[in-house]
Design goal:
CATH topology of the largest domain: Rossmann fold
Shape: globular
Strand order of the largest sheet: 4-3-2-1-5-6-7
Number of strands: 9
Strand content: 5-15%
Distance between the termini: 23 Å
Number of domains: 2
Helix content: 40-55%
Order of helices and strands: EHEHEHEHEHEHEHHHHEE
Largest sheet: 7 strands, parallel
CATH class of the largest domain: Alpha Beta
């Protein structure tokens, strides 16, 4: 399988989470193997999205295989292996972890991948090290544009200014890599009713919170809760927490 890396900040905004989840989901459905570093934030979101989409995942550690860091991602690591993915490390089991191991492993993430995508990162993020390794290793660098006033978008915005490919969805990625999707005719599950179609339209128009959906539609709270629950169960939307939703 062709491999593409998605990397970014450990403290993403809701925008960063949504863009990362959508990109990782659609790329894996298109037959791409997702590579990242099993860190907090963007890495974890990308890994989880790929797993939930039935895709293959490779996680490259900055620690030995017997020391999953952060410990909070141990279950995620187990899920990667359970779903046919791989966890890689160049560090021998039992060795001590050093701070410089983490930026050093970024060269492996870049080297494995046809392209490195930075979805959200501040100006000093380690993901920019990965992007630099990608350039040195003659891999393509891509970035998701973000709010000019958001520190979390300073990294990708600066990469775009320096010549990184501006991408907004998986179709852009595949086009830049000249890859044909096996599935990116992404067979979205069609809305089963007029109410479900309204919910999809609301979310895609930016009204992606329960509060905004009620405010911008004729739904009352109980009816909307019922429709959202059915759509989540049938895989049409995803609950991001805190009353936020996205279309799968």
């Amino acid at each position: 399988l062709p491999m593409v890396a998605i990397v970014g900040t450990r403290r993403p905004t809701e925008y960063g989470r949504q863009m990362t989840y959508k990109l990782a989901s659609d790329l894996t459905r298109a037959g791409i193997c997702l590579v990242s570093g099993l860190a907090y934030g963007i890495d974890a979101v990308a890994h989880q999205a790929a797993i939930e989409s039935g895709g293959r995942v490779v996680a490259v550690l900055g620690t030995p295989l017997d020391t999953i860091y952060p410990a909070a991602n141990r279950n995620l690591a187990k899920s990667i292996l359970k779903n046919g993915g791989a966890i890689l490390s160049e560090y021998a089991v039992g060795t001590n972890t050093q701070r410089f191991n983490f930026p050093a492993r970024n060269r492996i993430i870049a080297g494995l991948s046809l392209a490195v995508i930075v979805t959200e990162a501040d100006a000093s993020s380690g993901s920019l090290i990965t992007a630099n390794f990608a350039t040195v290793e003659n891999r393509m660098v891509m970035a998701v544009p973000g709010n000019l006033t958001s520190p979390r978008s300073a990294g990708p915005n600066s990469l775009i200014k320096l010549g990184a490919k501006l991408i907004t969805d998986a179709t852009d990625v595949l086009a830049e890599l000249e890859l044909k999707s096996s599935v990116l005719q992404t067979k979205k599950v069609a809305p089963a009713s007029k109410e479900e179609a309204i919910v999809v339209d609301l979310i895609e128009a930016g009204n992606n919170s329960t509060h905004l959906m009620i405010e911008n539609s004729d739904f009352d709270a109980p009816r909307l809760a019922h429709v959202l629950s059915l759509m989540e169960i049938t895989g049409k939307i995803r609950n991001l927490g805190a009353g936020q939703w996205m279309v799968r």
